[in-house]
Each structure stands twice: as structure tokens, then as C-alpha cells.
Specification:
- This protein has 21 helices and 10 strands.
- It is an alpha/beta fold.
- β3, α6 and β4 form a beta-alpha-beta unit.
- α12 packs across α16, α13 crosses α15 and α17 packs across α19.
Length: 465
């Protein structure tokens, strides 16, 4: 099994040999059990005294909101905290600058902070935030280490963090004076896609990438938690807690649906496949997908094979994440991502309890053509429904598409079909995050075409005044 620690951290193991007899302490605020074990083993050869304090910060109200119009949602949330100090985390430097400017235009005293700024500017902005009341710091994760400002009343994530550990560390900068504070997160499909892409592009081995994907799965389970968020968050770090009454799920519960029968199907599939396979394999068994792996294991002969064919993959993924979040299934982050059944899950399998779930908050776009109520295929939007300025933008995007297609020696539709360009015109994305929301933009095309198309949109809109 590979280490969860980056190579530069593993080099620290030399310290106990270089300084024999000198006491060494390793301190971390957010490491999960697997990481703590890895630190103890690799840095200290397992010879450690370990002390773990409680993770609960009950004064911080937790909330997660599906991203729709992030600028409006951001302004609305910060508008409720007029005159208060807060931190707004953004995924990119460009979005950090854009968000700070947006808030300043609303009369908020907001300052940007990211690694691309001059050191003197970063230090100046940090000093203002630390000393003046009512300042909002809009930052990437470059901001936060060593920050101990007692009166931060909120932390807002405009994008999905990288992991539960990162999220917990970042929201922990709120409410250090013990007074009420808020941690509010916005997340959307584009966030998930980009986080997956970041993991795949990381200069790391397959073992570390696999674990990072599982950690992201755990964070998505928190986002989709059907029950108290604090219970889900603390369970990740190995702590038990009662429903807190201070999170959005407790304070304003969403409609929950009885999913006991489907949960029992999942548990049966996990049990019959040996409690060692990951979610993707379990879903293939449930949906009756005869993959090579399923056939090689003989799982196409199980009674559970195909019993869940009526549901799509994303529906099963959401159900499994919510079952992990509520303690019915255990996700083996330290191993190969296999699912196993907890004692609570065995009780449900035996009919001793029920499973209530929330409908998937991030439904996948269907690859099937849209149809009207009569079953007829809907027509794609046509150029003629666009306004004059929109038509001009579409023409510019088509010209860019043709140039890119010629450079690559492929037909124009391979770059983007017309319907994607039309959706681009209607949405007018200005950032990579917004571009990723355009219908037909996947991870590969986001990477290949975001920059030229965003530049073209920016140019046309600027010329239009």
C-alpha cells in the first residue's frame, strides 16, 4: 500500500536519525485516521504517543447550497453579514479578483489575496484584514495558514474544496471567539468535474490519485448528506455526535424519501460481492452491466445482478454516497476504495430500520435527446431565436470554431456542435467554472478550448459596450 503523504513529507523521517534522542512532535489540525497512522508509521516508525482532541466546533452553523447563480448567491449571503469580517474562498486567482471587485461594487470592503499577487500587496491586504473590522478577504487557499483572527463571522466557499480535511481546516478560521459563525458552501457539477481533473493532472502516483478521488467522494457525501451535516463531518474524523440543530439540514430539512428497498439492494450487492469492491463495480452489478470485471468475478450470476436496472448510474452513486454519509456503508479510503457494511447497515438489511434519502441534488445531464410530453424528440434551439447581439456573438464563435477545426484537421462539429455554441451564447461564460457548465463541455474540451472561447466572448462583449 502506498503512502498518503507527499514525498517531501516522507523525507522528514530522516530527522529521528539525524537527531537521535531529541523529542520530535508532529502536529496537524485536520488529518483523518489513515493519515495519522501514516504519519506515525513513516515519520516515527510507529513509536509514538498519539493525542487526538475533539473536532467539533458547535458555534459554526454549517450549510451547503447547490450552485445556480453563484454571483447572486454570494452577494445574498454576504449581504446578510453587513459590516462583519469574513473569508470568501475561490478556486482560481481570476475568480478571486472578479469576486472581490463584485463585492467592492456592492459597497463591501473586500480585498483579494492569491499567490499571483506581489508579496508586498499580499502582506498589506493581510494586515488590513487582521487589524481592521468588517473586512472581507477573498482568497484562494494560499490564504489561511497562521491566520488567527477571532472575529471572523463567516467562511464562504464559492467552489467545492478539495477534501473534507481542507474544508474543515478552512471553515475552522470562523468563530474562534466562540460566538456564532457560519460556514456556507456553494458547489456544482463544474466543481466536481474540475476537482476530478485536478487530481488526474497531479504529479503523483496512481495510489495517491485513487485516494484523493475517494476523499473527494467523502466530501460529496457530506454535501449530499440526508441527515445532520455535523454528524457526517465528525464521523469522517472518527467522532460520534447527536444531530446538532445548527446546520441547514437540521434547521430546514429537505424532503426525504423512503429508499429502504433500494438501500437493501445496494447492501445485498455489497455483501454478495464480498464487501471489497468499490461503488462503480457494485453499480455495474446492480444495473446488470456485463463488464469484463463483473464476468471475471462471476458476479453476473448473482441474484442481485440487474435488480437495479431501472435506476441510472448517477442515482445509484448518490444513494451510495448518502449511505456512506449516514453510516450504513464504510468506504475504505486506506485500501482500494472498497465498500463494506457497518453494523447499522446490517440492521437495515435485516429490516430493523429504514433509510430516508434526498433526491440527487446534482442530476446529470442526459445524453439522450430531449423529448416532449408526447415522446417526440424536441428540436434543438435554432439560430433564429437569438437576438441581434447574440447572433453576432454566435458568428464570432463559429469563426473561431472553424479556425480551430482547420488547425486540427477535423470537422467543425468535432470542436463543438451548434447547440453547444448556442448555449455558450445564452450563458456568456466569463470564467472556466462557468464555461464548464455549458452543455457539451466535458473535461477534455474544457482543457482544450476554454481559453480561446472565453477570450472570444470577452472580446465581442467588450466591443458591444
Amino acid at each position: 500500500m502506498g503512502s498518503v503523504l507527499p514525498p517531501e513529507y516522507e523525507d522528514l523521517c530522516r530527522l529521528r536519525h539525524l537527531f537521535p534522542g531529541v523529542p520530535i512532535a508532529a502536529l496537524t489540525a485536520t488529518a483523518d485516521a489513515i493519515t495519522r497512522e501514516d504519519i506515525a508509521d513513516r515519520l516515527f516508525g510507529g513509536e509514538v504517543d498519539s493525542f487526538v482532541l475533539g473536532f467539533d466546533r458547535p458555534n459554526i452553523r454549517l450549510a451547503v447550497e447547490m450552485k445556480r447563480e453563484w454571483k447572486r448567491q454570494c452577494r445574498s449571503f454576504i449581504g446578510r453579514h453587513e459590516g462583519e469580517s469574513g473569508i470568501v474562498y475561490c478556486l482560481s486567482r481570476k475568480k478571486t479578483e472578479e469576486t472581490a471587485a463584485l463585492l467592492v461594487a456592492d459597497g463591501v470592503r473586500a480585498l483579494p489575496y492569491h499567490a499571483g499577487m506581489e508579496k508586498t500587496d499580499r502582506e498589506a491586504h493581510q494586515n488590513v484584514f487582521m487589524t481592521d473590522p468588517g473586512v472581507v478577504m477573498v482568497a484562494t487557499i494560499a490564504f489561511g495558514m497562521g491566520i488567527d483572527k477571532a472575529d471572523v463571522r463567516y467562511v464562504l466557499h464559492t467552489d467545492l474544496p478539495g477534501s473534507v480535511e481542507a474544508y474543515y481546516q478552512e471553515i475552522g478560521r470562523a468563530g474562534r471567539d466562540g460566538r456564532a459563525a457560519e460556514a456556507h458552501m456553494l458547489y456544482g457539477l463544474a466543481d466536481i468535474r474540475m476537482r476530478r481533473q485536478f487530481i488526474e493532472e497531479e504529479d503523483a502516483g496512481p495510489e495517491r490519485r485513487r485516494r484523493e478521488h475517494k476523499r473527494l467522494d467523502a466530501l460529496l457525501g457530506y454535501c449530499e448528506a440526508p441527515a445532520c451535516r455535523r454528524v457526517t463531518l465528525l464521523e469522517y474524523f472518527g467522532e460520534q455526535n447527536e444531530p446538532c440543530g445548527n446546520c441547514d439540514v437540521c434547521l430546514d430539512p429537505a424532503e426525504r424519501i423512503d429508499g429502504t428497498e433500494d438501500a437493501q439492494k445496494i447492501l445485498a450487492a455489497v455483501y454478495r460481492t464480498g464487501e471489497r469492491f468499490g461503488a462503480a463495480h457494485v453499480i455495474d452489478v446492480l444495473r446488470g452491466t456485463a463488464t469484463e470485471k463483473v464476468g471475471r468475478a462471476g458476479h453476473d450470476r448473482l441474484p442481485t445482478f440487474g435488480m437495479g436496472a431501472a435506476r441510472g448510474k448517477n442515482e445509484w452513486r448518490s444513494l451510495i454516497r448518502q449511505m456512506v454519509a449516514t453510516g450504513l456503508l464504510r468506504l475504505d479510503i486506506g485500501g482500494y476504495g472498497g465498500l463494506s457494511i457497518t453494523g447499522k447497515g446490517r440492521g437495515l438489511l435485516q429490516g430493523e430500520s429504514v433509510f430516508l434519502y434526498r433526491r440527487d441534488t446534482a442530476p446529470a445531464r442526459s445524453s439522450e435527446p430531449a423529448r416532449d410530453p408526447g415522446g417526440r424528440r424536441r428540436k434543438e434551439p435554432q439560430d433564429g431565436s437569438l437576438s441581434g447581439p447574440e447572433t453576432a456573438l454566435l458568428d464570432a464563435l463559429k469563426a473561431l470554431r472553424l479556425r480551430l477545426a482547420n488547425e486540427r484537421g477535423v470537422p467543425a462539429y468535432v470542436v463543438f456542435p451548434d447547440r453547444t455554441l448556442i448555449d455558450m451564447v445564452r450563458r456568456r461564460p466569463r470564467t472556466e467554472e462557468e464555461f464548464a457548465e455549458v452543455n457539451g463541455v466535458g473535461a477534455a474540451k474544457l482543457k482544450a478550448f476554454a481559453e480561446p472561447f472565453l477570450a472570444a466572448i470577452e472580446s465581442v462583449l467588450a466591443d458591444a459596450g
